């Protein structure tokens, strides 16, 4: 179910991506307004949520590929792979944002 929720969140997140492109197309003032809004703490939380959804969708997709290959289907292995995909997604998202903050690409 979480994989489907992540896909839904990515669909909503694509609207933010389109808004970013539209702001860039409408000129510097529109882009500055969009950047100011999405660079705020609430905007950064939205971007983090989109990043987390993408990371989880990736890790859950890899888990499903393992299952489709016929591996990891026992209850214990399936549970382990599920937890691995959850923690892996969180580590990927946090690592990505840590790099963004450490390099100065994103600031509060």
Which features characterize this protein?
elongated, 108 residues, 84% helix, mainly alpha
Unreliably modeled segments: none
The chain-level structural class is mainly alpha
Total helices: the number is: 4
Which whole number gives the mean pLDDT?
Answer: 96
Question: What's the N-to-C terminus distance?
Answer: 33 Å
Can you summarize the main beta sheet? none
Number of E-state strands: 0
Integer-rounded radius of gyration: 17 Å
Could you state the order of secondary-structure elements as H and E?
A: HHHH
Strand-residue proportion: under 5%
Which percent range fits the helix content?
A: over 70%
Shape: elongated
Structure commentary:
The protein is mainly α and 108 residues long. It is built from four helices and no strands. The chain starts with a helix and ends in a 6-residue tail after the last helix.
List the helices and strands and how they pair.
Blueprint: H1 2-25, H2 28-38, H3 41-68, H4 75-102
Helix pairs in contact: 1-2, 1-3, 3-4
Give a brief outline of the structure.
The chain has helices spanning 2-25, 28-38, 41-68, 75-102.
